[in-house]
Amino acid sequence: MIRRPSRPVRVLSSALAVGALLTTAACSDDGGDVSQAGAVARQTPSASPTTTLTEAGAVAALITAADIEDDWTQVKDSDVADWHDSLRIGDVDVDDFISGKTDSADCQRLLDGLYTDQLLGKPSGASALRGFQQGESRLLYQVAAYERTDPQESLEWLKTLPQECDQFTVTGNGGGERTAQVIETSLPKEGDDRVGLRITMTGTSDGQSATLTEDVAAVRVGTDAITVTAGGLDGGQPDSVEQAVKLGTQRLKDVLAGKTPASTPGEFD
Questions:
Q1: What residues pair up with 142 in beta bridges, in sequence order?
Q2: Are the C-beta atoms of 73 and 134 separated by less than 8 Å?
Q3: pLDDT at 101 over 60
Q4: Mean pLDDT throughout 204-224?
Q5: Cα–Cα distance, 214 to 198 (Å, whole number)
Q6: Using CA atoms, how far apart are residues 259 and 165, in angstroms rounded to an integer?
Q7: From the centroid of its chain, how far is CA 206?
Q8: How many Cβ atoms from other residues are within 10 Å of residue 106's Cβ?
């Protein structure tokens, strides 16, 4: 039986939520010992931010269409909730794995994580998600808190996949087989740690040969993280993912610092 993971209920973005945050957010300064705090910060540059990510903060940290340029347009929240791609659904063939390779469960976890939008596991705190479309391509951007789990463990796991899940077979509905490949991609050096992947799945869609290509990025900022998935049957979207990582990481840092993220030119046009 083909497993169909259920998609989680998410907090999706809205202009009202962002507007409310922009009018209430303010920078804070507790007036503590600046010299001592500064020394600690220099000694532990990758220390987790002390601000807890709230639902409103997660929404404010989401990127906009202006951040990723090109011809991306933001889609309705209801449309994002219905995004499914049948090429992602299937069972990994355990016969593809020999001594020295990971158990097929890791590759199955990858497929399920892409389908459920939980690539780093289920968020333990606030989360928000926004979707964009450009022709036949889609881009999904998520901000989430993982304060009661460890996003770094998930990042380390993702880093192993280009070697452990470099190529494998997926059996879909009706017994049709698809070939999946995973390769490592480079990302801007943003956040405390990061990983980039390109995942391709070649099979049959509506009776025609088709290849789904998706560029994936995950960036950790303390115990919070952003994830980006972009691509489609027309190919991957590496430039848009890179832009989303650059500007999205800064937006999240601003929110965690108690600041209002700077608007991108054209954001409110």
A1: 129, 227
A2: yes
A3: no
A4: 91
A5: 6
A6: 40
A7: 28
A8: 18
